[in-house]
Q: What sequence folds into this?
């Protein structure tokens, strides 16, 4: 018969084994890939994670199963390649200013210079997209802005076509984050892309921004997907985690994107309020439809 001392020793051993097992399970949960299905290629914008050194961030992102990081400068593109990652959306060398965009012809020379410098580098380093902006209204009519944006993009579309790099003009909200921004509706952006008529000039459809301005996200994506090359995420309201504190149904949105035949990237661009990598992992898993 087991005496009391032996019973206590066995119970202690069992408790230790259970704690070790639980610890191992937690560690495995934290290190396993967040991407399991991978039908939708996901990326993550760099700027909400700037406090994490880029090399550490790239390593963590790769371990989650992501293949790309968004919104990197040209000098950062080779760094993430060392970790098997692509820069899914790059900044051109100069001229990528939200307020001073394509709607003003005074900005065209600088914008064209930035793309002329960066498009060949992007092609060489496998960067598929470079970002552009419509610019602030400053009392400009939509008709004049459309004409100017089309003219500016026509200057650089041939080079983008020749090198196989897509220029993505971002739709942003003018209600909360970017007062006076002219490209604040899908219809405006689509008019520009249709008129330029290039396979290498498309929209960056930011779901966070367009939920604030328009709502009706899934139907808008289904009706306009041929004009969209890239997506951004962010919880509404607040631009934080993609969790139950916000109003969007991300799995449904992501399934709708996949069903359009989309082959580009959906990049997370929310500002974490908790442990940043845990929040990112949760968002990636949620959108892995």
A:
């Amino acid at each position: 018969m087991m005496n009391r001392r032996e019973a206590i020793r066995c119970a202690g051993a069992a408790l230790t084994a259970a704690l070790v097992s639980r610890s191992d399970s937690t560690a495995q949960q934290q290190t396993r890939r967040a991407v399991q299905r991978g039908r939708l290629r996901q990326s993550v914008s760099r700027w909400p994670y700037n406090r994490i050194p880029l090399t550490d961030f790239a390593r963590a992102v790769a371990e989650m199963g992501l293949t790309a990081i968004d919104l990197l400068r040209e000098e950062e593109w080779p760094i993430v390649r060392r970790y098997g990652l692509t820069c899914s959306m790059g900044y051109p060398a100069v001229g990528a200013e939200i307020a001073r965009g394509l709607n003003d012809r005074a900005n065209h020379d600088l914008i064209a210079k930035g793309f002329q410098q960066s498009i060949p580098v992007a092609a060489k380093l496998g960067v598929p997209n470079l970002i552009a902006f419509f610019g602030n209204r400053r009392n400009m009519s939509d008709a004049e802005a459309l004409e100017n944006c089309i003219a500016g993009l026509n200057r650089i579309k041939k080079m983008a076509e020749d090198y196989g790099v897509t220029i993505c003009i971002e739709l942003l909200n003018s209600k909360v984050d970017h007062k006076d921004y002219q490209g604040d509706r899908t219809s405006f952006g689509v008019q520009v892309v249709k008129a330029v008529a290039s396979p290498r000039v498309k929209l960056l459809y930011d779901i966070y921004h367009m939920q604030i301005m328009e709502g009706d996200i899934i139907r808008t994506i289904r009706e306009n997907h041929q004009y969209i090359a890239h997506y951004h995420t962010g919880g509404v309201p607040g631009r934080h985690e993609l969790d139950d504190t916000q109003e969007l149904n991300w799995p449904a949105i992501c399934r709708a994107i996949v069903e359009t035949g989309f082959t580009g990237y959906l990049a997370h661009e929310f500002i974490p309020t908790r442990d940043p990598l845990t929040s990112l992992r949760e968002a990636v898993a949620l959108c892995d439809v």
